[in-house]
Amino acid sequence: MDKKFVKLVLSALFAALVCVATMMIKVPTLATNGYVNIGDTIVLLSAWLIGGVYGGLAAGIGSALADLISGYGTYVPGTFVIKFLMAVAAYLIFTAMKKAKLNQVLAYIFSGIVAEIIMVGGYFLYESTVLGYGLGAAPSVVSNFIQGITCLVLGYIAILILESTKAVKIVKKFI
């Protein structure tokens, strides 16, 4: 089976999962008209399972599509870039730590923390500059931080479950 085709199919599947997870629970944030969600759980899984550009595209497209469908059109370009960068950074850090034979638990956690810092900082920059909220974007930092911690915990639990069922090995065999 062609590995690029499998990665493309997995990316489409993960983009759909990111979109659904993002839209499933939406809690409005203070001041910026954004919302907190659990989509980053799947963003992290796309980084850890698919990786690279394919995982980044799954994260970016799925998250941006959720914003578009949910009526947050002004967030679509920012969301795409932020989620793409999150997934690619998490993948690169996780891969580097794994190659260095560092503890895999630390690799998941550290790569996830960096990804969530990109999310929090990325949305603050996007909202304060592109959307023009200025320092009015500051309250969303707290909401995004809570989202980041929540999704990191959920993502880590999900990857542990997937590893215990050997699903990760099966996916990795094909990509």
How are the elements arranged and paired?
Blueprint: H1 3-24, E1 27-28, E2 35-36, H2 40-49, H3 52-69, H4 76-99, H5 104-130, H6 138-164, H7 167-174
Antiparallel strand pairs: 1-2
What do you see in this structure?
- This protein is mainly alpha-helical.
- It is 78% helix and 2% strand.
- A two-stranded antiparallel ribbon has the order 1-2.
- Helix 3 (52-69) packs antiparallel against helix 4 (76-99), helix 4 packs antiparallel against helix 5 (104-130) and helix 5 (104-130) packs antiparallel against helix 6 (138-164).
- The relative contact order is 0.16.
Give a brief outline of the structure:
The chain has 175 residues and is an all-alpha fold. 78% of the residues lie in helices and 2% in strands. A hairpin with a 6-residue loop joins strand 1 and strand 2.
